[in-house]
Amino acid sequence: MGDLHLPPAATSTAPVPAVVTVHGSGPMSGEYARNWEDMGSRLAAVGIAVFGYDKPGCGESGGDWTRLTFADRAAETVAAVTAVAAQPEIDGERIGLLGGSQGGWIAPLAANIDSRIRTIITFSGPGVSVAESEEYQIGAEGAAEGYTSEEIADALALYRRVLSRLRAGDAAAAILTDEIHLVGTRAAELAEVTSVKELEFFAGIADFDPVPALEKLTCPILAIFGSDDVLVPTEASVAAYEAAFARSGHRDHEIVVFPGADHGLRVPDPATGRPRRAPGFFELITARLVRTLR
């Protein structure tokens, strides 16, 4: 299930290209993705449809997203591509993916499965493993949110213990029982060691490495990052993307880092001090999609 936003001129005799939004982590519906910063209207204005689907267990979709591996999520994305390509107003040979955060890991996997996917745009999509990205987040986000150096060190130590035991095959419930004295502390909160369900989900994705999928990629890709992202290691991710494309010989790629931007590609508004999307962000996305899908 999901939400399809069509340009007014789209008809079965004049089908238009479409982008499928690939969700980040957590529960998300298609309506949220389609309406994100009015993305549907922005792209409809240049003749591109937007399809946002409900993650399993969200909106009107059945299932449970916390039980999915990244391979499952890639298959889910391909299913969304199939669904939107079947609509009479859509040109099924001109489909793109727009993946944010965790969706930046998923989009290349899906594109390597389905040749109908003509282009990818990722924003704040890590170029490193899930485990490495999580460790970076503990340190960077902890510092940004005012955790003490001791609290950050405790959180990192807890995270590494838990990760080691998950890799060894220990049950999440047993791990949480052994660390119960820390549950509810700031260290556990920062390390996101809070429930059996979360640990079980993390165990299934922790060692996912995005590099092989990037090396196999053949379609055009635009990867966007913020220099001040505290959830994703921008410098390491850019280096990983560049190295992967150098090894594979991939040509049609662009990597853009917005100075001062955070994980959501926001910067402080100089007039109000409140966060706003980095100037040029939407224009960059629109121009890229027009070039690669029109």
UniProtKB/TrEMBL annotation:
Domain Serine aminopeptidase S33: 15-265
Superkingdom of origin: Bacteria
InterPro entries listed in its UniProt record: AB_hydrolase_Est10 (IPR053145), AB_hydrolase_fold (IPR029058), Hydrolase_4 (IPR022742)
MF annotations from Gene Ontology: carboxylic ester hydrolase activity
Protein name: Serine aminopeptidase S33 domain-containing protein
